Amino acid sequence: MPHLTSNPLRKVLIQSDDTSVLSKFQNVPAYTRVLYLKDEISDAPKTPVGEIKKYADAVTLPRFSIVPTIDGFTTATTKVVNEMHAANISVYVTVLRNEFVTLAFDYFADPTIEIATYTSGIGVDGIITEYPATASRYLRNPCSSDSMPESSYSIIPAEAGSLLKTVPEETQPPASSPTPALDVADVVDPPLPAVTKPASPPPATSPHSSAVANIANVVLSLVAIVVFSSLSLV
Q1: What phi and psi, each to the nearest 5 degrees, are found at residue 91?
Q2: Of 130, 143, 160, 224, which is least surrounded by CB within 10 A?
Q3: How far apart (Å, rounded) are the C-alpha atoms in residues 213 and 125?
Q4: In what order do the strands lie in the sheet with 12-16?
Q5: How far apart (Å, rounded) are the C-alpha atoms in residues 121 and 115?
Q6: Strands 73-74 and 69-70: what pairing?
Q7: Which residues of the chain form beta strands (DSSP E)?
Q8: What is the pLDDT confidence band of residue 225, given thresholds at 50, 70 and 90?
Q9: Rounded Cα distance, 139 and 145, in Å
């Protein structure tokens, strides 16, 4: 794609959940390699993050790897984004939707508040959404800029876990099982198999001699039937 790589205003991202696939683009510095970590994680230790750095420039994380929820309430903000940024790895969050059933109560059924929480509040490098018009409207809104004066109106991100604290302890949802931290086995994949030439198909077999004989017998039988029919008419 020379027309894309030569344009500084455009960026080509190659995403895969397989490090072997991303390694094939290692010699194309114009492409940004993105590793998709589809399983939810609670932490990103240095060892697996170091393995990510060998294959990718960025990662795509599910929403709950950054802001976990329980029964519709956000509980906290993980350190995964900061741990990735410490290794100079960009972070993209997926996937944001407008439907209120997909939004935590902390966002008050407003997808703009969720976008603000991930971008302005947490500082992710990008979002993946099914509603790009909503994201575009937020990014073009002057109230979403960090350069706005404090006295002016601004879109305030939600504080993860703050709404849950207002719920009486005896009525709070039970704690869920802990989410595992990222492991090296979750990152590194076996190399791709070598490309091999497909085997040639076997030669077509000729009809068996018994089949030829059967055909000949059928022909003779038909001739005999015709002869007997002719004699009966005489």
Answers
A1: -130, 130
A2: 224
A3: 78
A4: 12-16, 31-36, 58-62, 90-96, 126-129
A5: 9
A6: antiparallel
A7: 12-16, 31-36, 58-62, 69-70, 73-74, 90-96, 126-129
A8: very low
A9: 8
What percentage of the chain carries pLDDT values higher than 70?
A: 80
Is the pLDDT at 176 greater than 80? The verdict is yes
Distance CA 175, CA 151 (A): 39
Neighbours of 19 (CB within 10 A): 19
What span, in angstroms and rounded, lies between the C-alpha atoms of 82 and 123?
9
Instruction: Provide φ and ψ at 73, rounded to 5°.
Output: -105, 135
Q: Nearest-CA neighbor of 67 among 12, 35, 114, 135?
A: 114
Give the integer Cα–Cα distance in Å for 162 and 74.
8
Q: Give the H or E element holding residue 93.
A: strand 90-96
pLDDT band at residue 175 using 50, 70 and 90 as cut-offs: confident
User: Domain residue spans in the chain?
Assistant: 2-186
What pTM does this model have? 0.79
Instruction: Tell me how far the alpha carbon of residue 13 is from its chain's centroid.
Output: 13
Q: Per this entry, what is the length of the chain?
A: 234
Q: What is the DSSP letter of 101?
A: G
Residue 222 binned pLDDT confidence (cut-offs 50, 70, 90): very low
Helix, strand or coil, per DSSP, at residue 194: coil
Cα–Cα dist 127/14, whole Å: 15
Tell me which residue has tokens 């073009």. Answer: 140
Q: Does residue 179 contact residue 61 with C-beta atoms inside 8 Å?
A: no
**What values do phi and psi take at 62, rounded to 5?**
-65, 155
* Distance (Å, whole) CA 114 – CA 129: 11
Residue type (1 letter), 198: P
Across 16-35, average pLDDT: 94
